[in-house]
Amino acid sequence: MATSADKLSQILVEACKFARDGMDDEAVILELAKLELLPKKLLPKAKTEKEEVVSFYASKQAEAAAVQAQLSLELGKGSGKHGKYTLADIKKLLEGPKQKPTQISPSALQLANEHGISIAGVVGTGKEGRIVLKDIEALMEKKDESQEISISPLALKKLEEAGYSKGDLAGVIGTGKEGRILQKDVEEFIKQQKGSETEDNDTDDE
After folding, report:
1. How far apart are CA 90 and CA 64, in angstroms?
2. Which of 25, 104, 127, 192 is deepest in the core (most CB within 10 A)?
3. Average pLDDT along the chain
4. In degrees, to the nearest 5, what angle opens at C-alpha 186 toward C-alphas 182 and 191?
């Protein structure tokens, strides 16, 4: 009389043989049942026309939402059972990654608030981009430099294209609001500079 161990050994031998023949799990179970090595209750149930096939990737609702949003799902990456995506997972994907709040030291934040320094988009020199005191001090220096000469972006571009810097505009008062230097002011400055250079050359020739 065959023992449970003998039967188990026979099941493993036959299952391995069927697997080597390229059968999938359901086919292997079916063949083992035919050999009466497995009870018929373990046979996979035949699918009816009304039976809905559940996705390996997501639940029914989650998959419908993913298809509508044209999302690509990765197998086993969801938070549900067996790694399936849930509706909550799809909502998170649609929301996108949450931006981490700007990290700044208390002393740096206090200094920034006192001087009205904006930290938007600033990446600090501290650990993991944390904004520290010296970063705010550097921003203050830049702010002071920019306040020395008020110049429009277009005017500055025109100035640099001509080979000059803001320092060359010392003493120039623009025609814009509160003496802001505009593009036409830079053009006039460049014209004067070229005129002066021409006069210097004429003097040298004499």
Report:
1. 10
2. 104
3. 76
4. 150
User: Which three-class secondary structure state does DSSP give residue 131?
Assistant: strand
> 49 pLDDT exceeds 50?
no
Could you give the 3-state DSSP secondary structure of residue 85?
A: strand
Place of tokens 């702010």: 143
Q: Note every long-range contact of 183-187, with CB atoms under 8 Å and residues 24 or more positions apart, other chains counting.
A: 183/152, 183/154, 183/155, 183/158, 185/155, 186/151, 186/155, 186/156, 186/158, 186/159, 186/162, 187/158
Q: Is the CB of residue 158 less than 8 Å from the CB of residue 183? A: yes
Mean predicted confidence (pLDDT) in 83-96: 84
The secondary structure of residue 58, as a DSSP letter, is B
Type of residue numbered 165 = S
Please indicate whether residue 139 or residue 97 has the higher confidence score (pLDDT): 139
Retrieve residue 90's tokens: 């799809």
pLDDT score at 171: 67
Write out the CATH class of domain 99-148. Answer: few secondary structures
Name the residue ranges covered by the structural domains of the chain: 4-42, 60-95, 99-148, 150-206
